[in-house]
Amino acid sequence: MKYLQILGKTVANNALLLCILYCTPVLLVNAQQTVGPMQKASIYQLDITEEIYPATWRKVEKAVKEAEDLNAAYFIINLNTYGGAVDAADSIRTKLLNTKIPTVVYINNNAASAGALISLACDSIYMSPGAKIGAVTVVNQSGAKMPDKYQSYMRATMRATAEVQGRDPQIAEAMVDESISIPGIIDTTKTLTFTVNEAIRYNYCEGEFSSLNDILKHLNVAAYEKTTYQESITDKIIGFLINPFVQSFLLFILMWGIFFELKTPGVGFPIAAAIIAAILYFAPSYLEGLAQNWEILLFIVGLVLIGLEIFVVPGTGITGGAGLAFIITGLVLSTINNNFFDFSGISTTESLRSLAIVVVPFVFGLILLLTMSGKLVDSGYFKRVALTTTQEASEGYTVEQKTLKFLVGKTGSAATTLRPSGKVDIDGEVYDAITEGEWISPNEPIVVKGYQSSYLVVKTELV
Q1: What global pTM score does this model have?
Q2: Range of 120's domain?
Q3: Does the residue 447 lie in any domain?
Q4: Which residues contact 249 (CB under 8 A, 6 or more apart)?
Q5: pLDDT tens digits for range 107-149
């Protein structure tokens, strides 16, 4: 009996051992399938090393979309800028605050003005040795400080951004307004700018690092795949063309091209330059979805109305004024992201910037036209393309002139509107005619009072 018990235990132990040996490979295979290879974090990097303009906003918008499609673990901005347009920076700020991807900015030397606002919108701020952040005072293109209403808007924007990211809002305001004093940090005579150590001390920077790789190590990202935003040739061209300075220059060329074509009709080059300038102005905005078909149509209708004012109904001013209003409206609306006449979400700053892009070159061009048009028409180029000499009779030039004396007293009708010049129809023949200030509509009966050189002097015939 004892031997049977020992034998039973031995068989049971052997069976358990066999079961373990049999199951072990299966467990190992399943373990390998469950754990798998180590997953790499997806990192998306965007470099901003230029002034902040609409092209930069366009780049950030596309980059954030690509990072979200990749489900990136971090969206990192490698930043070095002295600032730029407030409206573009505000759009970038809003985009960064609204994305669900953790945002990191690495200030590689400078984050001034609009660059400071962009940095403040990120979840984490890191700086390179010697970097700076601050000086967000709003200035115009010449560097002069803008009125307080612009500073007030920027103060509120900086304060709101700091509050969202858990940073001291008063410090953010002091970066805009030199009148704000913070004991121990800044007095009332300077706009606040932080060095690296100061930014770290006052929670405006999470750390000082020499490279992006060091930042990723600090974030405990050991293994990662990095995607860097790459601009296409089309992106670069569009970015260049939607620069406010380039847009203003194109409008200047457009205005002068139309003017010189009217001055010297038939030359061809001025109107060709105007057409090319108009295409280069509208095409980038159209591709970006800013310029809509009806806005471009407004511009074309404006040109037609001005043409009517010049060639068909001169002197009224109504069609010309309406045409100018249509042109300016079409040009301004094509640079802002409105939905027909819904301007919600468009800041006052953005609207004023778009208006300035259009109005400034027109005013500047008009001043130049009034002061320089005579000199330009007398220049060598225009003397080559337009007749400027007089053919004197003393030099042997003669012209055969058809006498119009026999038409005096005859009656007919106005072939076109006379205001006061136009054309009349007498016995089936059309003649150039002028009134003595009277306005005669087409088909009204007329009588010839006299003639001057090659045209008739007419008046309305009373029936």
Answers
A1: 0.60
A2: 42-230
A3: yes
A4: 361
A5: 999 999 999 999 999 999 999 999 999 999 888 766 778 888 8
